[in-house]
Each structure stands twice: as structure tokens, then as C-alpha cells.
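Quick one, C-alpha cells below. Sequence please?
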């Protein structure tokens, strides 16, 4: 089974193709990971997951989706994450990455609803266009503020590397700040960060270049994008392919292909593996490795995606919440080799 064969990004080897997809747990205190996170991520490591991707983590306080999001804009936050990374490295064969994020106009919420200003904060965006009509108009970022944010991503990546993370993933999907720049529907700027395709991708490209200055051969860089935003004249698969080509040349190691999130009320046709064709097209047209995600619940289906060459990694979100032992449990069925804690030897099938 390809699913249980190792794969290398730069010099970093993942033992298998299962990835715990990044998932906000809305359980941090002032952006600091808690004991909950220690057990939550630690148990997926014990389950044999090839790569664990820590949830969307704010690079600045205003970049959080909610006040309970994880953050990595200070040393205390990095220290709490370091404890998790150390556990994973010392007690499993998993590698661990972190998704660096800024929510832009979709920040300052609770349970999917924008918080009143007294409980939240003013949001920022490329243009003065709110996500939903009922929401406050975001502050339009100045060029100076955009440049500062590029540096915030870089500083956060530096803290993540100090904490021992193996992989950095930039969150450019789901209608958050970077995606807001990519889309002509949320970015109507007339300066060098808006208008043409080259201008709309500039913010992401500058972040990738800044972060890559810190990364050596042992630390790959992934980017999560929305392959389409399901809207007429919006960000689509053709621009995603074009972007992937640019990112490949900027030493991005994998495109993690999700979709949607930028257009309020957009209709998404959900079915098992609904985003796999997007990952497949990006991979086949650019030859950059891709990650497939979205309603992939079984090892058989994951294996089929890999066999067909549609993706190189399988990101799993809800199924791995239901079953932290997803990777190792399926390895027993397929008689494949997978990490299982030696303390659990007597439970091996
Ligand atoms: C509780 C929860 C939190 C999520 N948080 C994030 C996140 O922090 N970053 C991200 O890119 N996607 C996030 N997602 C999306 C998942 O990573 C994944 O792309 C999506 O759930 C589809 O995969 P699935 O069908 O395996 O659940 C989240 C999903 C869930 C269920």
C-alpha cells in the first residue's frame, strides 16, 4: 500500500501518507496551548499519523478567528507548543507541523458569528468589503501594514522552528486573509497588491519568500489553498494551477488543496473526496506534490487516491477526531508497517 510507504519533502521523511488536517480547537488561553492540546495532538502521534498539522495559529492577535484560537506571536505561546512537539518527537514516529494563519475580515468571531467590537476587535482586509453584509466593514490594510504582516508570518515561523516544528504550512485557504488577497471578489485594490493575478498573489509570495529564508533542507514548506471559491469571476482552479506553478518555483514543497470559504452563501456540492479533483489537476498540470482533503474517511479510498496519482498526502480532519488510531488501526488490516507505542504491544493484531 502506498499509504504506508514513506515520502520525503526536502530531507524530512514522513513514515506514511496520513496527515492530521489542521483543525481549530478554540481552546487556547490568550493564544497559549493548554493540557487539552497536549493530549489531543499527543494521541494522534500515538495513533501512527505520519504528519500532525497543528491548527490555524494566529501570527498576530487580530489574526485569530476567535479569542480562543491558538497563537504564536510571543514566546509563552511558543513554549507551550514546544512541549507538544517534544512529546511527539520522543514518543512516536510522527512529524509535526504548524499552520500559520491570519483570518483577516473573518477574524473576531465566536461560533461563526462576528463578535461585537467590545468583545472582539476591528478586522483587517485587502479592501473595505465585509465577508457577510451584516458584518462591520474591515479596515483596509496600508502597504506598510501589509509589509509588517509579512514580517509577522516570518517571526512566527522563526518561533515555530525554535519550538522544534518540522513543517511550516501557510494558511492561504478558506477565505482568510491571504485568500482575501488572492480573490478578485474580496480584493479590489488598485496598488501593487490588487488587480492583476501577479498583484493579487504578491502578499502570499512575499510571505513564502520571507518564511523560506528561515527554512533549511530539513524543514519543508506547505501552502493550503482553496482550489476554487465556487463563485462566478472569483478565484478558480485555473488561477490555482497558475499559483501552484509560481509557488513550486519559490520552493514550496506541497500544495494542500481545500476549497471555498471566501464567498458568503456559496453553494458547495459535497460528496466523498469532493476536493480530490482539484488536487489532482494541480498535481498533473504542475507536477508539484499535493495533499488531498475533504470527506476521505477510509484507508481504501485514501489508497485509491494515491494509486491514481491524484495526491501524495491524505489530510484527514473529522475522521481522525473520531479515531485517533486511524493510521495504525488500518495498518493492521492491510498488514502494513506502522508505529504503535511499544507499551501497547499486547494489543497488536
Ligand atoms: C473542527 C474543525 C476545525 C477546523 N479548523 C481548520 C483549521 O484550523 N485550518 C484549516 O485549514 N482547516 C480547518 N478545518 C478544515 C479541515 O482541516 C478539513 O479541511 C475539512 O474538515 C475537510 O476534511 P474532513 O472531511 O476530513 O473533515 C477544520 C475542520 C474542522 C472539522
Amino acid at each position: 500500500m502506498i499509504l504506508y510507504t514513506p515520502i520525503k519533502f526536502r530531507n524530512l521523511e514522513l513514515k506514511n501518507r496520513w496527515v492530521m488536517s489542521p483543525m481549530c480547537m478554540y481552546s487556547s488561553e490568550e493564544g497559549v496551548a493548554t493540557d487539552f492540546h497536549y493530549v489531543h495532538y499527543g494521541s494522534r502521534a500515538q495513533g501512527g499519523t505520519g504528519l500532525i498539522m497543528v491548527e490555524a495559529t494566529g501570527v498576530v492577535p487580530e489574526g485569530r478567528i476567535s479569542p480562543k484560537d491558538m497563537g504564536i506571536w510571543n514566546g509563552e505561546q511558543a513554549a507551550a507548543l514546544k512541549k507538544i512537539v517534544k512529546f511527539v518527537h520522543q514518543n512516536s514516529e510522527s512529524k509535526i507541523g504548524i499552520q500559520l494563519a491570519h483570518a483577516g475580515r473573518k477574524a473576531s468571531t465566536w461560533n461563526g458569528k462576528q463578535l461585537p467590537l467590545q468583545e472582539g476587535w476591528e478586522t483587517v482586509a485587502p479592501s473595505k468589503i465585509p465577508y457577510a453584509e451584516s458584518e462591520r466593514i474591515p479596515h483596509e490594510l496600508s502597504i506598510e501594514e501589509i509589509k509588517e504582516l509579512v514580517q509577522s508570518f516570518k517571526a512566527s515561523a522563526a518561533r515555530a522552528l525554535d519550538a522544534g516544528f518540522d513543517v511550516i504550512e501557510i494558511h492561504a485557504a478558506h477565505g482568510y486573509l491571504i485568500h482575501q488577497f488572492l480573490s478578485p471578489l474580496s480584493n479590489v485594490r488598485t496598488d501593487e497588491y490588487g488587480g492583476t493575478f501577479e498583484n493579487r498573489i504578491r502578499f502570499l509570495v512575499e510571505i513564502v519568500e520571507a518564511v523560506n529564508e528561515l527554512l533549511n533542507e530539513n524543514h519543508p514548506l506547505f501552502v493550503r489553498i482553496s482550489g476554487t471559491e465556487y463563485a462566478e469571476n472569483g478565484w478558480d482552479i485555473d488561477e490555482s494551477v497558475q499559483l501552484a506553478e509560481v509557488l513550486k518555483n519559490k520552493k514550496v514543497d506541497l500544495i494542500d488543496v481545500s476549497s471555498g470559504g471566501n464567498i458568503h452563501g456559496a453553494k458547495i456540492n459535497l460528496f466523498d473526496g469532493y476536493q480530490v479533483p482539484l488536487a489532482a489537476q494541480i498535481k498533473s498540470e504542475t507536477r508539484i506534490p499535493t495533499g488531498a482533503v475533504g470527506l476521505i474517511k477510509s484507508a481504501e479510498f485514501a489508497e485509491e487516491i494515491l494509486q491514481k496519482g491524484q495526491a501524495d498526502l491524505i489530510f484527514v480532519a473529522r475522521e481522525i477526531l473520531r479515531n485517533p488510531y486511524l493510521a495504525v488501526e488500518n495498518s493492521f488490516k492491510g498488514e502494513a508497517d506502522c508505529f504503535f507505542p511499544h507499551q501497547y504491544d499486547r494489543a497488536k493484531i
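Residues 26 and 182 are 26 Å apart (CA to CA). The chain has eleven helices and 15 strands.
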